[in-house]
Write the structure tokens for this entry.
Amino acid sequence: MPSLTSLPGRHRRRTLLAGISSLVFGFLSGKARALTIAGALPWTPGAAAPPAEARLGPWLFFTPAEARATEALVDRLIPPDEKTPGGKDAGCAVFIDRQLAGPYGNAHGLYMQGPFAAGTPEQGDQSPFTPAMRYRRALAALDRLSRQRFAGKPFAAIPPSEQDALLAGLESGAVALEDLDGKAFFALLLENTKEGFFADPVYGGNRGMASWTMIGFPGARYDYRDWISRHNERYPLPPVGIMGRPAWNEARG
């Protein structure tokens, strides 16, 4: 039988349409059978590869000075209140540190070759700097700026009101960082802080599932369909992460 590519154009189309028609007819007439599985599960229990759990411990990417600055930054972007911890105690800086120490930090899988030129927002990031490089440069530049303006004090040591003023300046573009786009860094920092606050705790942030508890998100519970249509009702069960709940792990120990 000749291949489809060896036939003239109109014959190729007819042959292809005939094949599709036969397939559709088979489904409609009941000739196509679904796969029936009996006597065993179609997967092997425990065969999944969950992400490695980020544990508390030494910083993997940040220097101590960078870590202090980042903890101060995330705590101003998500300040604590009487019910919910802020960005620092929720582990947002730990989340960012672990991400920068891994593939995200070195822009693994992204095209990072030149030429580099400022593009439109629709074209995405056009910078030659990886996320790790941006943080390293920006945190150093932010501390230098803070020391110049506040009698030698690094960003983490100045009053919260002054920290907020610098952050507002970075967001608006009124405050410039040396050798780096401060506005772009603010956007990156804000994005990463929100990711750390709301991501699964397995990645180092959302410590104690604080943000999920705050918004009533059930997390990775296997089934909560009964509550999807129950608007303005708070989900009554505590959230569950990929690794379960701390109370469950303590019970196993």
Observations:
- Residues 64-112+123-215 form one domain.
- Residues 1-8 have pLDDT under 50 and may be disordered.
- The two ends are 66 Å apart (CA to CA).
